[in-house]
């Protein structure tokens, strides 16, 4: 069994740590908030104490502190260790982390968790890339994590997750904006039902219809979204998604008007 250090014992880190402890893995953990811990975990007082001698280090905190954490522990790391960053961050940051760790001889793995961790813990599906991808798959895959390698470059896993985030988080924002408008217009339940039925009936062909329809009707749909944005303003709602969609359709129209789609 490897010794695994977990840096960050928030919602995700604690769930993964609890599953590892249940498997009999020796887990050392650190979090700057003293109250955070997990039964059976060896709680230490610093990042450096946690990583010293650990076979695998899982950094599960926030993107805004990921580089600072890596710089803090780098002098303690050496060949044979694996440092995996599980934070949701831009590919450029993952590449910076890899550069910080490269001189230490430790392997770096860029890990993208592809589903919410609560309720899944160690069994959260993940993508991994970077110099330490194969090692991460071999170690964490053997412990039950469903992880897929996507290349040797740090940032490749992060990029794939963030591309999906553009859709999923954007969809959530659009649904929220539409439902708020519907609430103020007195048709929230009707709108909710319409959205739910559309999602329930969706299949792979929907993607093609969305792309093709936007290409063919960008100008008309831009005007439609401009009207929607004006309505939202009249309702006292800042039309974040409506205006963004209008701008996207305007760009799309400019790109395609000289190349009409057959």
From TrEMBL:
Keyword S-adenosyl-L-methionine: no
Domain of life the protein comes from: Bacteria
Enzyme active site: 161
GO molecular function annotations of the record: NADP binding; oxidoreductase activity
Signal sequence coordinates: none
Domain Phosphogluconate dehydrogenase NAD-binding putative C-terminal: 182-250
Entry annotated with the keyword Oxidoreductase: yes
Name recorded for this polypeptide: Phosphogluconate dehydrogenase NAD-binding, putative
Species of provenance: Meiothermus ruber (strain ATCC 35948 / DSM 1279 / VKM B-1258 / 21)
